[in-house]
Amino acid sequence: MRASSESTRQAAGADSSRRARLRALAKINLTLEVLHKRADGYHEIRTIFQTVSLADTIELEFNPARRARITIASSPEIPGNLAALAAEAVLDAARARGEVRITLRKRIPMGAGLGGGSSDAAAILLALPVLAGCVIESTRLDELAAALGSDVPFFLTGGAALGLGRGAEVYPLPEAAAGPALIVAPGIHVSTAEAYSALNRSLTSSAPSPTMKDSRSLALCLGGQLPAGDWPDQPGNDFESVVFERHPELRRFRDRLRRLGARPAMMTGSGASLFGIFPDREARERARRAFADERVFPVTLVGRRRYHTLWWNQLRDHINQLRWPPQSRYAR
User: Fold this and answer.
1) Residue 26 has what pLDDT?
2) Average of per-residue pLDDT values in the chain
C-alpha cells in the first residue's frame, strides 16, 4: 500500500463510493508545562488543550476495491502527510481493502503550535472506519493516534482536556465557557526541538515548573464554568521564556493582546502563534483591528459536546446512532 499525490484511481462503481466532508479543528494550549526529559527522549509535559473553531477542510472518499490504495491531494503539498499515514494505519488495523482519496485544504497555519497536522490525522482516524464499514475499538484508535503524534489523541476527544506524559495521555475536563478568541499567527518559524533543548530540562528533574499552580487554578476555573475574564491573569506556557528571548516581537504581541483586554493571552504550543480570549465579540473586534498588519483568525472555543455534534453531523449519512467514537452503519 502506498500514498501518493497522483490523481488516478481504480475503476469502481459510482454507487459504491462513500464520501464525507470534514472540518478538522485547531487547538490551543491554555497552559503548557515542560517537566523533565524522559528516558525515551521525549519530555514529560502537563498541558490543558482546548479546541477552537479554526479548521482545515478534508474531502474523504472510500471505494471498496480488491487492494488498498491511498491518494492524497493537499494544498499546500505536505511531505509525509499525517492524514495519509492515518489512512494507512486504519486500513492495516482493520485489515480492510479499498481505495481512499483525501483532498486536504489547509487553513490552520503549519508549524504554529495549533495542531493542524495532528487534527487532520485524527479526522481520518474518526471518519475512515465509518466510511469503510470497519469497527476499531476506541482503545485501539488511541494507540493508532499516539503512534502518529503526541497531539493526535487529544483530537479524538476534543473540548478541554488535560494532556500528560508526552501529551498523548488525555483526560477530558469540564466544558469551558464558550468565549471569543483571536489567534495571531505572525509566520515566524520556531523549531520545537530547539525550544525543548533551550529549556534544558534534565532527565531526573522532578521540581514543578513555575506554571504548575496556574494549571491547577485553570482546571478549577473550567470546572466552575467561569468566563474567560475570571480565569488566572497569566496562565503559563514554559516555552515563552526561551522563545520570547529569541523572538522579542512575540512578547510584544502577547502584551498587546493583554492591553486590549484578553484574559488569558499567551503563546500556544512551542510557538509561534499567540492567542487571546476576550470577554465579548466587540473587544475581540477591536483587537483584530489593532493587529491589521498581522495574520489573525477570529475564533471561538469549541467544547466537547459541540465537537462531538460536529462529527455526528459530518458523518450523519453513514452512522445510525449517536455514539462516540462514531460507529458505521455499514459494519457487520
Assistant:
1) 98
2) 86
Question: In whole angstroms, how large is the CA radius of gyration of the chain?
Answer: 20
Residue 230 annotated in active site: no
Q: Tell the CATH topology of 180-300.
A: Alpha-Beta Plaits (3.30.70)
Proportion of the chain in helix, strand, coil states, percent, rounded to 5: 35, 25, 40
CATH number for the segment(s) 3-8+17-173+304-314: 3.30.230.10
Among 142, 151, 214, 238, the one annotated catalytic: 151
213 is catalytic: no
* H helix or E strand, kind and range, residue 36: strand 18-37
Residue 318's identity, in one-letter code, is: H
Q: Indicate which residue of 27, 56, 106, 142 is catalytic.
A: 27
What is the pLDDT at residue 80?
Answer: 80
d(CA 310, CA 131): 16
Using DSSP bridges, classify how beta strands 296-300 and 180-184 pair: parallel, antiparallel or unpaired: antiparallel
Query: What is the per-residue pLDDT across 11-63, written as a single tens digit (0 to 9) for each?
Result: 334 458 999 999 999 999 999 988 877 766 677 888 999 999 999 999 999 99
Cβ(86)–Cβ(153) below 8 Å: no
